[in-house]
Amino acid sequence: MKLSFTTLGCPKWELETIVSRAAEYGFDGIDFRGLLGHMNVYELEPFATSYAQTRDRIADAGLEVTCFSSSITLVSKEREEQNLEELKRYAELCERFGTRYIRAFGGKLGGKERAEGIAVAASLLSRADAVLRGTGVKLIIETHDDWTRCEDTLLLLEGTSPETVGVLWDVHHPYRMFGERPERTWDVLGPRIEYTHWKDSLPNDGAQGTFTYRFMGEGDVPLRDMYAVLQANRYDGWYTFEWEKHWHPAIEEPEEAFPRFVRYMRELGATSAR
C-alpha cells in the first residue's frame, strides 16, 4: 500500500518540514496542493529555479511526488485559458519530478444546465489531450462538487482518452453526500480510477449535507469496504490522505492527524492480508 498526503493538510509547514515529517511518519509520497498557503506551487522558487534541489531532497528522503493538485475547473468557460496555462505549467513540473498525475475539479455548475457544463468541459479536455498525449501524464478528475456521483463523473469522461484523462476517487464525498456505495462507484468508474483520496467524518445533527471531519476510523465512512473493493479489483495506486486543514483551520493539527492516518491504513492493509 502506497501512502501519500496532500499539503492542504499542513498549510504552515515549510518544504523541509513537509519532507522530513513525511519520511518520519512513514509516508511514501507527497501530493502538492500548495505550499505555505500559496496554491500554485509552480510559481514558487523551490519548484521553479530550484526544482532540481527540491526533487533531489524528496528522492533522498525515499519519497515521490505523487500528484500536483491544481485548481483547474473543467466547467468554467471563463477560466478556460487560465486552466490551460495552469495545465501546461503543472505538466512541466510532472516532467521535472517524474510525476504522473495532475488533479482537476469538474467544478460547480453555478446555475448552468449539466449539458452545458459537459460541453464546456469537453472543450478544455480536448485541448488538454493535445498537451498531455505522449507525455505519460494524466489529468485526473476528482469526484467532487457537482460531479460527485459516479454517473455524473462518467459524463465528463465521454470522448476522452484513458491515456490522458482518469478519475481521482475521493472515497469520502460520494458516500457522504449521496450515500453512494463503493461497489457502485467501482462498477461505473473502475476502469478509469487512477488515484484515491481518503478521509473520515460524521454527519452534523440537524444540518443535512454537512459533516465534521474525524480521525481515520472515528467517523462512519465505510473505509474498510472501500479498501476491500479496491483490493478485490487489484488497485495498485496511491492512498492519499486529504486533511483539509487549509480550508478548515479548526480541525486537528497535522502532527496528530498524519501519523494516525498511516497507522490506520497500515493496520487496515495488514488485517485485510490475513
Give a description of the structure.
This protein is of the alpha/beta class. It has one domain (2-273): TIM Barrel (Alpha-Beta Barrel), CATH 3.20.20. It has helices spanning 15-25, 51-60, 80-97, 114-132, 150-157, 172-178, 182-189, 223-232, 254-273; strands spanning 2-6, 29-32, 64-73, 101-105, 138-142, 165-170, 193-198, 200-203, 211-214, 238-241. Strand 1, helix 1 (15-25) and strand 2 form a beta-alpha-beta unit. The longest helix is centred in the last third of the chain and has 20 residues, at 254-273. The protein is globular, with a radius of gyration of 18 Å. The model has no long low-confidence stretch (mean pLDDT 96). One of its GO terms (molecular function) is isomerase activity.
How is the secondary structure organized here?
Blueprint lengths: L1 E5 L8 H11 L3 E4 L18 H10 L3 E10 L6 H18 L3 E5 L8 H19 L5 E5 L7 H8 L7 E6 L1 H7 L3 H8 L3 E6 L1 E4 L7 E4 L8 H10 L5 E4 L12 H20 L1
Parallel strand pairs: 1-2, 1-10, 2-3, 3-4, 4-5, 5-6, 6-7, 7-10
Antiparallel strand pairs: 8-9
Helix pairs in contact: 3-4, 5-7
Protein name: Sugar phosphate isomerase/epimerase
Keywords: Isomerase
Organism: Paenibacillus ginsengarvi
